[in-house]
Amino acid sequence: MAEQGLFIYGIVPCDVEPTPDAEGVGDPPGEVAAIQHGELAALVSPIGLEEPLGRPADLTAYEGLLDGTAAVAPVLPVRFGTVVTGEDAVEDLLAAHHEQFADALAEFEDRMQYTVHGRFDEAEFIGGLLAENGSAAALADQIRGRSEAESREQRIRLGEMISQAVELRREAENRAVIDAVGQYAVANAPRQPSHELDAVNVAFLVGADDEQEFVRALEEFAEQRRELIRMRLTGPLAPYDFVSAHQLVE
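Now predict its structure.
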């Protein structure tokens, strides 16, 4: 029989218990349990020590469990893929860092992460750039009707101009969304773009009392840009961009 370990998802207060239908990583999914020590508990599930991790289903299970927990209780995410040999190792982790974990959980009580992501509409963005930038418009005219081989140099130059314009506008839009909704957030964390046309990518830590105002302000921000930027709000989430158990012990 393959040797078993425990996959750790996150640290929670000791009174938090997984729901009966909670499923963990692995194939088949492991049963999620809470291992308690003092005022803390760790959400874990069994996993074969030789079993590969990293399938999309594993990441979905990991995030689903943490995000579902964050909706009802504070949680400190543990880095995806953290596996220990057994319950004793989990209890040792909780005992060694009990004070740091407990303090962090208290700090994140009733606070959740929301992630704001927006992507430029390519046609709208390029159309606006050509209307405002004579040099870019001239290059576009030189390209029009010519083969890629014939207009290679002009295409490269125009592509560089578009890339630079996107980067500058992205920086401005990230600042703008922080200005628009930041008063309703405890903290914010700009994120790296995930696509060359990303316009906005910022995580916000929001208190439960400010959720409605935060969403309202973001809706207003998105409406002002609806022709140019396709906006998406994801949350509530576990506070991945603001705290993790690993940060507290490293």
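Residues 4-109 form one domain.
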